[in-house]
Design a protein that fits this description.
single chain; 279 residues; alpha/beta
C-alpha cells in the first residue's frame, strides 16, 4: 500500500518526476532536481514523523520545489509500520540506520549523489531519526535539521562527534512539549528544548556567545527567534517559534486540533536548505 501511494504521488509540486525505488526490501521516493544528471548532487533525506509516510512528507514540506530551484536531490523514505527506530525504545528492533545507510550508499554508487554532501531533515519521530543518524553514522551525514522533537532520554549520544545541526521548536507543541516529556510517557521521555540545545552545544564544541534576532512579520500571534551559536567545531542554529505547535512550519500553516497552533512566519524546508547549503 505504501508503495502504491508513493507511485500515485509521483508528480511533485515542482513538476519534477518522482521515482519509487527500494533497498533492503524497503521503499523510498526520489525527486531529482539536477539540471545536469551526469553530475552528482547533494542529497536531502526528508524523514516523516510517526504515522506519516513519504507522500505526506513530500506534500507538506515543499522540498521538491527547492530541489528543482537549487539543483539537489531529495529522498523521502518510508518507515516500517509508519514509524522510525530513533532509539527511544529497546523493544523496537527495526534497523533503520542500516536501511538509510544502504539507501545513501546506493545513491552515491549510482553517481546521483555526491559523497560527503548528504543531509537529513526530520519531522517529529523523523527528527529523532535524524539525530540517531548523526549519532550512529556521522561519517555519512554532513548535517541535520530537526523539527518538532527533542532528544530522547534513552538515546542522547552525548559523546558523539560534532555534526552541524539546526533545530526548530514551537513553544505550543502539544506532542513534543517544550519542557520535554517525562519518563514513562506513551511516546517516550525526552529532554526539554533547552536541555537538547545544551547537549548539542557541548557536542558541537560551541564556546562563543550566541547571536540572535527576533522577527514578527505576519501578525498571527506568533514570533520567531533565530539563534546562531558561535565558535563551534560544527555549526549549530536554533529556531524558536513562539506560539507554534507540532506541525512542519510553513508560510501557509494552519492550526489543527491534534497538532496545535501554526505560525506563518517561517518555512522549515527553506531554513533547512539555507543551513545545509552553507556547509
Amino acid at each position: 500500500m505504501i508503495r502504491l501511494l508513493a507511485l500515485l504521488g509521483a508528480i511533485s509540486f515542482s513538476g519534477s518526476p518522482a521515482l519509487s525505488d527500494t533497498v533492503l526490501g524497503r521503499n523510498y521516493v526520489v525527486v531529482d532536481g539536477r539540471k545536469d544528471t551526469n553530475r552528482p548532487a547533494p542529497l536531502v533525506i526528508a524523514i516523516h514523523g510517526f504515522l506519516g509516510n513519504a507522500s505526506n512528507m513530500q506534500r507538506k514540506t515543499g522540498f521538491d520545489r527547492l530541489a528543482k530551484r537549487h539543483g539537489f536531490i531529495v529522498a523521502y523514505p518510508n518507515g516500517r509500520l509508519r514509524r522510525w527506530n530513533d532509539g527511544r525504545s529497546s523493544r523496537n528492533k527495526t534497523d533503520d540506520v542500516a536501511f538509510l545507510s544502504a539507501m545513501i550508499a546506493k545513491m552515491v554508487t549510482s553517481g546521483q549523489v555526491r559523497s560527503g554532501r548528504v543531509f537529513v531533515a526530520g519531522h517529529s519521530n523523523g527528527g529523532g531519526m535524524a539525530m540517531r543518524m548523526a549519532c550512529d553514522r556521522p561519517d555519512l551525514v554532513r548535517g541535520i535539521s530537526v523539527v518538532a522533537t527533542k532528544t530522547s532520554t534513552n538515546y542522547q549520544c552525548r559523546q558523539g562527534p560534532p555534526v552541524p545541526a539546526i533545530f526548530m521548536h514551537g513553544t505550543a507543541d502539544p506532542i513534543a512539549p517544550h519542557a520535554g516529556r517525562p519518563e514513562g510517557s506513551r511516546l517516550g521521555g525526552t529532554l526539554s528544548a533547552e536541555a537538547t540545545l545544551d547537549l548539542w552545544k557541548v557536542r558541537n564544541r560551541c564556546t562563543g556567545a550566541p547571536r540572535s534576532r527576533t522577527f514578527d512579520k505576519k501578525n498571527d500571534g506568533t514570533s520567531v527567534k533565530v539563534t546562531r551559536h558561535t565558535n563551534c567545531r560544527a555549526a549549530l542554529n536554533y529556531v524558536l517559534i513562539d506560539g507554534h505547535g507540532h506541525d512542519w512550519p510553513s508560510l501557509n500553516g494552519k492550526a489543527t486540533r491534534l497538532q496545535g497552533p501554526a505560525s506563518n512566519e517561517v518555512g522549515a524546508s527553506a531554513l533547512s536548505w539555507a543551513f545545509f547549503s552553507q556547509l
